[in-house]
Design brief:
With 343 residues, the protein is an alpha/beta fold. The protein contains 11 helices and 9 strands.
């Protein structure tokens, strides 16, 4: 008997966060099996341990001991640090036609799997589609937090499904993202340039790179509000010590996502255009927030994003991400049209 849907949970040192996610999935089994519009959804759960040093493996084994056999719980280990490596491992392990990704701090609604499965039946051209993601804050966020909320995988775009058009320069986050496995096989190169945050680097954007390849291949990208998730955000993720390096990592990755839709011979001119726009943003932001950059955390995050975006080409070149001897890391024959990354 085959599998229709794989829930993949990449995790790093998630022993304290995983139990709540697994409890949600175990308790939602009846919904996923019985509420899909067309036929019951056959599903599984895979926890991808991304080189954890805590008791993540033991936690999963304890759940496996009495986990329902109708929707198996599997464990696999990915030694290469980085979310991109963990997601690739999940795709190779997944038996489902659809792979739905949950972070270890994402709590899906009871009907999340059923809603994801039904959406795929209604939208066969959808290569990937994201969830409606609500923030579950441990503490009250700072003033004007809504300006940066989307960067922390908080996605509230209304109650109706909408398609992300290539010209919109917006894509869903990987938290709560469902990817049609065939779209990933058709679109993504064996290696992405960006691999995700690690213990010694906040460089990110690997999820945008993956989704951009899928969209560039002609697959549709959607937002499905029927798939609802609560994203737990602890107090330390709202502190300057976390947010400034976090936005630095987003900015430093941007040259990759910006250039994916640009032909090689056009990249010098496109780079100059983006750099000019970054300088414009920095100038306007300084004029507006110069006196508040130390006291206004949100304005400081935005400034860090603009400055890091400006520096992105040099940073990536200096650290070997754009090594011309490794063309498979950056170029892809599948990228033929405009794609959406935040400009």
């Amino acid at each position: 008997m085959g599998v229709d849907f794989t829930v993949a949970i990449p995790t790093y040192n998630g022993e304290k966060r995983l139990p709540e996610v697994l409890d949600r999935l175990r308790n939602s089994g009846r919904n996923a099996l019985g509420q899909a519009k067309t036929q019951p959804c056959r599903w599984e759960v895979i926890v991808v341990d991304n080189n954890s040093s805590d008791n993540t493996a033991q936690v999963v084994r304890s759940y496996q001991a009495d986990w329902p056999k109708q929707y198996p719980l599997r464990y696999c280990f990915e030694p290469k640090q980085g979310a991109a490596h963990a997601r690739n491992h999940a795709f190779h392990e997944a038996q489902g036609l659809l792979v739905g990704f949950l972070d270890d701090d994402n709590l899906p609604s009871p009907d999340w799997i059923a809603a994801a499965w039904s959406f795929a039946q209604d939208h066969p051209a959808a290569g990937a589609y994201g969830s409606q993601i609500h923030a579950d804050f441990e503490v009250t966020p700072p003033n004007n937090f809504e300006r940066i909320a989307p960067f922390l995988a908080i996605t509230e775009r209304g109650s109706e499904p909408l398609r992300y058009q290539p010209h919109q320069k917006i894509l869903p986050p990987s938290a709560g993202l469902v990817v049609r496995k065939q779209a990933w096989l058709d679109s993504c190169p064996p290696k992405l340039v960006l691999t995700g945050r690690t213990y010694n680097s906040m460089l990110t954007g690997e999820d945008l790179e993956m989704i951009s390849h899928i969209q560039a291949k002609g697959w549709e990208i959607w937002y499905n509000p029927a798939m609802s998730i609560d994203h737990k955000i602890p107090h330390w993720r709202l502190k300057r010590e976390y947010l400034i390096p976090f936005f630095r990592g987003i900015g430093l990755s941007r040259y990759v996502t910006r250039m994916l839709s640009v032909k090689p011979w056009q990249r010098p001119l496109a780079t100059l255009a983006y750099l000019s726009n970054d300088v414009r943003k920095i100038t306007l932001h300084l004029l507006k927030h110069r006196l508040q950059l130390r006291s206004d955390l949100i304005a400081a995050c935005e400034m860090q994003l603009f400055i890091s975006s400006l520096l992105s080409p040099w940073y990536l070149w200096r650290h070997g991400y754009l090594d011309s001897n490794q063309p498979e890391k950056f170029s892809s024959a599948a990228v033929k049209q405009s794609l959406t990354t935040d400009a």
